[in-house]
Amino acid sequence: MAFTLAACAEMLWRDRPIEWRCARLDEMGFEVGLWNWVDHDLAKLEASGATFSIMNGYLEGRLADDEGADMLLASAREAAEVGKRLGVARLNLHGTGLGDGGRPKLAEVATPLKWVKARDTLHRICDLGEELGVTFTLENLNLPVDHAGVPFARAEETLALVAAVDRPQLRLNLDLYHAQIGEGNLIELCRASLPWIGEIQVADVPGRCEPGTGEINYSVIAKALTEMGYDGPVGMEAFASGKDVAALTAFREAFGG
Questions:
Q1: Domain ranges of the chain
Q2: Domain 4-255 = CATH 3.20.20.150
Q3: Which of 9, 37, 55, 159 lies most in the core, judged by the most C-beta atoms within 10 Å?
């Protein structure tokens, strides 16, 4: 197994400054995931020396209506410029803008017309990615626990959109924590998604902590990913159930590091 391992700095060492967390992850050999760049001092993030795997690629906007799409494109352009400054490999999107606690700013039902609009908006995102030389990802979420009301949330839906667009500027951020809650059948989901995966994110269920704390057998999933030919980035977007270093060690061990 030869995955590139990353970890979300927002969820670890939460009593420490974000730039300290980034530097510590880099020291331990991990790439770094971020959420909203606007919450941080960019100069300090640059000075951390970290390699950034992924961050949110927008601050506002929606996929499935004209006003929301225009907001999303403007916000994504701003985020892309920041991403280029930090050297972020992937800029992450969701089915709609998220507010406090991960709830949607505007809850929606994905009607057939909204599916068409979402696909067209993602083509515009790809045009922006091609213009600026950046890659966006679309992340699946879960509805029962964390993100009720988000359209295009299930992995089958994000996969359908990314596959329908089918352009290299848009990949799938396949979050297996969310998929386990919403759908299960994770190995076959990985197999179906394989041509479009940009990054895989992991946490265990329940609790959203590191591998080995819940019901998902990540060592088996890691072996299956290797057998199907995936050797890309795997990011732990999880809280530590105890010590942060121990959580990262468990993650590394699950994925053969």
A1: 4-255
A2: yes
A3: 9
